Amino acid sequence: MNANDVARYLRDNPDFLAQHHELFTQLTVPHPQHGGQAISLAERQLHALRDKIRLLEQKLAELIRFGEENDDVSAKVHRLAAALAAAGGADEARQALVSSLQEDFAVPYVALETWGLAGGALDEGRLGEQVRRQLDALRHPYCGAPEHMEVLACFGEAAPHVRSVALIPLRRRGGAAFGVLALGSAEAERFYAEMGTLYLGRIGDLAAAAVSVVRR
């Protein structure tokens, strides 16, 4: 009989140790932190339980931290939605959007480009047709290094300082993109490819709705 056979037997007969409880004190195993010291099975089980509890506490603390961060972001998005709803025109909506993103979300560079809106465009439109098609093809916001000089140009004089961007297509529900909300940072790690885009998408929906409403 080898070690695997013993392990299989104990798994198949869970009452064995209950029927032979004296083994808990008679059998010894190496201490988990001190290999040269022998401890009983019961003490070894206590160490294992403490380790498991410690890991569970760490996971719980991480979940609480994520929850607090999400609550904080949700509150910021709510304030942005309220500010956009109170906007009385295109200029006021733009100002509310930029102020919220720069002050509440700490995004240093914010640009808004639109095209093809009924009644005229909010901007003259500095993005070429190819870039517009690529933005329209995005199903989720793009995050990462800027790939087009045209996009960088949206940031004006700040363009040379931008090392990472989040590009959020603006579209009516189910429609083609009519603009882009561009967020920029001098930190290359601020917007990265693997980051979550749920709240970025929601901000884009709010911005698209606000721009569409004030343009009618």
Explain how this protein is built.
Strand 1 and strand 2 form a beta hairpin. The chain has 216 residues and is an alpha+beta fold. The strands form 2 sheets. It has a 4-stranded antiparallel beta sheet with strand order 3-6-5-4, with helices on both faces. It has helices at residues 3-12, 16-19, 23-26, 41-85, 90-104, 129-137, 149-153, 198-215; strands spanning 28-30, 38-40, 109-114, 142-144, 164-171, 177-185. The chain starts with a helix and ends with a helix. It contains 8 helices and 6 strands, in the order H-H-H-E-E-H-H-E-H-E-H-E-E-H. Helix 5 packs antiparallel against helix 8 (198-215).
H and E order: HHHEEHHEHEHEEH
Quote the distance from N terminus to C terminus.
82 Å
Helix tally equals 8
Poorly predicted ranges: 119-124
List keywords for this structure.
single chain; alpha+beta; two-stranded antiparallel ribbon; 8 helices; 6 strands; 51% helix
Task: Please outline the helices and strands.
Blueprint: H1 3-12, H2 16-19, H3 23-26, E1 28-30, E2 38-40, H4 41-85, H5 90-104, E3 109-114, H6 129-137, E4 142-144, H7 149-153, E5 164-171, E6 177-185, H8 198-215
Would you summarize the structure shown here?
The protein has 216 residues and is an alpha+beta fold.
